[in-house]
């Protein structure tokens, strides 16, 4: 994409329409005096001498019409001629033209720093300020060509303010639009183009303007509009390349490949020749034709002139071979690429891919070795945090959870702004929780929340994607769990509680458990009204989820704590009736036991005794079996059903005579025997 933008911005058309017109116009018409002008121009029909400004200007103009290598050679000849002229005695009034021409020559040669200096000197030497706008424009163009777009953008604005009546204002606006595109601000480019068309309507048909509009449409994702706009202008390398990108984005690889091929065949000296060649080869790679992709990449390696494109093609050829099923050969080629391009981005990616291949084959020990090579040689590369993250995943796959957790922590500490940092933070938190370190885990879950949760104008939490939403819900749940396990209920009920209330409803089980943990913490702090609110929300959002069982049980307990025993029992009974088939033995058994306890505390001994008996019938091996037997005996004792009471207590003693509660049962039984005179 940047290739298209750069090509469009600094094509020969642009130089001809702007800098070239300025320079040639300046050189041929600069007012150096009537006599001198006649001597420089010579009679009509004669060719200016090669040692004159006009002659050198003609050499440069001719050079621009030549293909790549020939163009540079001709431009160097013009540079030598100008240097010879500089060594002669040049009048002061001609110095402006000489520096301007020097700027043009160095621009053509690609020496943009020198070109910028020469254009700046030309502007300073224009005492009559006739051509200063042209010289300053050339200076800004040289800044752009050297990649200093931010600085150039500021200079263009200054230029427009200084030269509002310049005949080249439309060119400045065109340049500003392309500058904005290169800086990644298409909205600014669109605004500038709208201003350009309003002030200079004829510019709407200019090929550079149309190409800029097509580029904006491409960035916006309107590929049909891009293709339609490009059809209005004459074909060139930039137009064909952008059309190819659009067809590829539309899922039309054959048309895209045809356009890339046309760039390669028709424009061998274009800067887009090599990018088009590898883009065409890459279509085979992305479409799954790996064998053809390897062959096409080999062709790029052999024919491309740019070393970086050749290196990229070597890398992708190796990848294609691996994907075609020959992992051994592909791996060998990746090692060759890494060795041949040591210290480069290509080598770093090749080294990382070696680890990825081994990781995919579940050869985790070997993968760790290769990923460590990335960290050792390219620790500042953008792939370094991913390599370290992969080491953590490999360690985890090997069962070395503590080491994996430390590695995830290293990703967060060493590369906090990397894309892998949130995932590493989440896994670090999970690992620390499993290691029994909840206080250490909580900051890592908070990192995920800080990175991926945002608030809208109303204060509600919003997410950039569903993936982010799920990760935030999981992290919030585990953050609350961390505080809960650490006993930090006050902090749990602070910011996490407030965030949970602002989260939009969802069907995620993470949200269900977060609501339950949150409610449990509120209940533990005797904040019963808030507990009720959270539990009712949970039951409303997740009526059929397993979490509804403990939630209903906690709600019943909350009612009981507030003295609303009838409501507590009603809630327990509703839960037992609704969720008995869910198979949650732990929560259901607890619910039966709690119901009996509530009835016992209300001194409703008949119903309480029946409830304890129901509990014992349903859950005969429950850990609270002895307590249920003891309390059932108390119920029957207080109902004057001594025989039933003694039956429960004797059963208790028979089950475990060593339990502390068995001693109490013996005493109670003995007391009843004594009263009944049953010695």
Q: What would you say about this model in short?
A:
By secondary structure, the chain is mainly alpha-helical.
List the defining traits of the structure above.
about 675 residues, mainly alpha, Serine Threonine Protein Phosphatase 5, Tetratricopeptide repeat, two-stranded antiparallel ribbon, 37 helices, about 75% helix, elongated, disordered N terminus
Task: List strands and helices in order, with pairings.
Elements: H1 2-9, H2 12-29, H3 34-41, H4 53-64, H5 68-86, H6 95-109, H7 112-125, H8 132-145, H9 149-162, H10 169-182, H11 186-199, H12 207-220, H13 223-230, H14 237-249, H15 253-266, H16 273-286, H17 290-303, H18 307-323, H19 327-340, H20 345-360, H21 364-377, H22 384-397, H23 401-414, H24 421-434, H25 438-452, E1 454-455, E2 461-462, H26 466-485, H27 489-492, H28 495-502, H29 509-524, H30 528-541, H31 548-561, H32 565-579, H33 585-601, H34 605-618, H35 625-638, H36 642-655, H37 660-675
Antiparallel strand pairs: 1-2
Helix pairs in contact: 1-10, 1-12, 1-14, 2-4, 2-6, 4-5, 4-6, 5-6, 6-7, 6-8, 7-8, 8-9, 9-10, 10-11, 10-12, 11-12, 12-13, 12-14, 13-14, 14-15, 15-16, 16-17, 16-18, 17-18, 18-19, 18-20, 19-20, 20-21, 21-22, 22-23, 23-24, 24-25, 24-26, 25-26, 26-29, 29-30, 29-31, 30-31, 31-32, 31-33, ...
Keywords: Repeat, TPR repeat
TPR repeats: 589-622
Protein name: Tetratricopeptide repeat protein
């Amino acid at each position: 994409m940047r290739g298209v933008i750069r090509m469009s911005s600094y094509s020969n058309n642009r130089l001809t329409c702007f800098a070239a017109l300025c320079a040639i116009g300046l050189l041929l018409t600069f007012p150096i005096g009537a006599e001198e002008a006649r001597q420089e121009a010579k009679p009509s029909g004669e060719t200016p001498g090669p040692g004159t400004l006009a002659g050198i200007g003609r050499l440069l103009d001719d050079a621009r019409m030549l293909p790549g290598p020939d163009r540079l050679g001709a431009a160097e000849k013009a540079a030598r001629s100008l240097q010879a002229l500089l060594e002669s005695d040049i009048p002061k009034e001609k110095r402006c033209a000489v520096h301007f021409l020097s700027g043009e020559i160095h621009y053509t040669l690609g020496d943009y720093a020198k070109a910028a200096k020469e254009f700046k000197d030309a502007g300073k030497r224009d005492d009559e300020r006739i051509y200063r706008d042209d010289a300053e424009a050339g200076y800004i163009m040289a800044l752009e060509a050297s990649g200093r777009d931010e600085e150039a953008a500021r200079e263009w604005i200054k230029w427009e303010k200084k030269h509002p009546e310049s005949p080249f204002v439309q060119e400045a606006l065109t340049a500003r639009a392309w500058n904005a595109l290169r800086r990644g601000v298409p909205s600014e480019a669109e605004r500038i183009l709208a201003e350009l068309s309003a002030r200079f309507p004829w510019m709407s048909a200019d090929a550079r303007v149309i190409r800029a509009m097509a580029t904006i449409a491409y960035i916006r994702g309107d590929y049909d509009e891009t293709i339609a706009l490009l059809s209005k202008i004459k074909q060139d390398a930039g137009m064909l390349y952008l059309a190819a990108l659009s067809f590829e984005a539309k899922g039309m690889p054959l048309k895209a490949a045809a356009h890339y091929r046309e760039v390669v065949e028709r424009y061998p000296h274009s800067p887009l020749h090599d990018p088009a060649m590898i883009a065409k080869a890459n279509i085979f790679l992305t479409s799954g034709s790996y064998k053809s992709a390897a062959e096409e990449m080999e062709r790029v390696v052999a024919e491309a002139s740019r070393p970086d494109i050749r290196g990229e093609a070597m890398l992708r050829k190796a990848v294609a071979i691996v994907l075609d099923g020959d992992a051994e050969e592909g791996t060998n080629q990746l090692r060759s690429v890494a060795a041949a391009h040591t210290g480069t981005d290509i080598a770093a990616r090749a080294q990382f891919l070696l680890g990825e291949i081994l990781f995919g084959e579940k050869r985790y020990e070997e993968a760790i070795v290769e990923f460590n090579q990335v960290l050792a040689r390219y620790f500042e590369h953008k792939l370094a945090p991913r390599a370290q993250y992969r080491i953590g995943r490999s360690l985890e796959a090997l069962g070395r959870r503590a080491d994996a957790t430390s590695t995830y922590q290293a990703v967060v500490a060493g590369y906090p702004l990397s894309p892998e940092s949130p995932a590493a933070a989440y896994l670090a938190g999970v690992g620390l929780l499993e290691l029994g370190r909840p206080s250490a885990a909580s900051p890592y879950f908070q990192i995920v929340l800080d990175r991926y949760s945002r608030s809208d104008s109303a204060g509600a939490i919003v997410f950039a994607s569903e993936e982010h939403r799920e990760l935030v819900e999981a992290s919030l749940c585990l953050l609350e769990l961390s505080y809960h396990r650490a006993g930090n209920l006050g902090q749990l009920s602070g910011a996490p509680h407030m965030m949970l209330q602002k989260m939009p409803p969802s069907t995620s089980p993470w949200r269900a458990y977060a609501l339950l943990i949150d409610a449990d913490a509120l209940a533990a702090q005797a904040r019963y009204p808030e507990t009720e609110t959270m539990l009712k929300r949970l039951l409303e959002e997740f009526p059929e989820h397993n979490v509804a069982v403990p939630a209903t049980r906690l709600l019943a307990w909350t009612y009981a704590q507030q003295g609303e025993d009838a409501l507590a029992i009603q809630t327990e009974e509703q839960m037992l009736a609704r969720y008995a088939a869910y198979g949650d033995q732990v929560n259901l058994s607890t619910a039966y036991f709690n119901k009996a306890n509530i009835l016992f505390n209300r001194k409703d001994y008949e119903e309480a005794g029946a409830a304890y008996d129901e509990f014992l019938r349903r859950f005969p091996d429950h850990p609270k079996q002895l307590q249920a037997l003891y309390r059932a005996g108390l119920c029957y004792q207080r109902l004057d059903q001594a025989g039933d009471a003694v039956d429960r207590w004797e059963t208790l003693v028979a089950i475990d005579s060593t339990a502390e509660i068995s001693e109490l049962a013996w005493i109670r039984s003995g007391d009843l025997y004594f009263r009944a005179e049953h010695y």
